[in-house]
């Protein structure tokens, strides 16, 4: 109910193939892609992506609260359903969702 009533709902996701962009985003080390690429490194890449999306999501929460918004971050929803609806056909997975707006003090 709170999610349906929120003015904005952010889906914080993580790209399980983020390393494909490393040559452009981390140009001073063209070998960085090799730290994550390959089936034997999938678990490490997934863990890294999830951890970094958690940090970036936390920065979003801090920034929203700094400008006076209330934020309700949540887990415990149907991740697979959200992934199917919003990230279908991509390597992106959902980490958590966050309702943003001005809460009811009552």
What's the gist of this structure?
The chain is of the alpha+beta class.
General description of the model:
- It is a single chain.
- The chain has 106 residues and is an alpha+beta fold.
- It contains four helices and three strands.
- It has helices spanning 2-5, 22-25, 42-66, 79-87, and strands at residues 8-15, 70-74, 92-101.
- It has a three-stranded antiparallel sheet, with helices on both faces.
- The chain is elongated, with a radius of gyration of 16 Å.
- It starts with a helix and ends in a 5-residue tail after the last strand.
SSE diagram, text form:
Blueprint: H1 2-5, E1 8-15, H2 22-25, H3 42-66, E2 70-74, H4 79-87, E3 92-101
């Amino acid at each position: 109910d709170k999610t349906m009533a929120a003015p904005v709902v952010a889906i914080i996701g993580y790209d399980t193939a983020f390393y494909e962009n490393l040559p452009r985003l981390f140009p001073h080390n063209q070998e960085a892609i090799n730290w994550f690429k390959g089936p034997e490194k999938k678990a490490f890449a997934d863990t890294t992506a999830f951890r970094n999306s958690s940090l970036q999501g936390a920065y979003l929460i801090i920034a929203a609260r700094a400008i006076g918004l209330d934020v309700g971050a949540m887990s415990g929803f149907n991740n697979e359903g959200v992934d199917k609806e919003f990230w279908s056909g991509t390597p992106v997975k959902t980490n958590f969702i966050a309702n943003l707006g001005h809460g009811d003090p009552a």
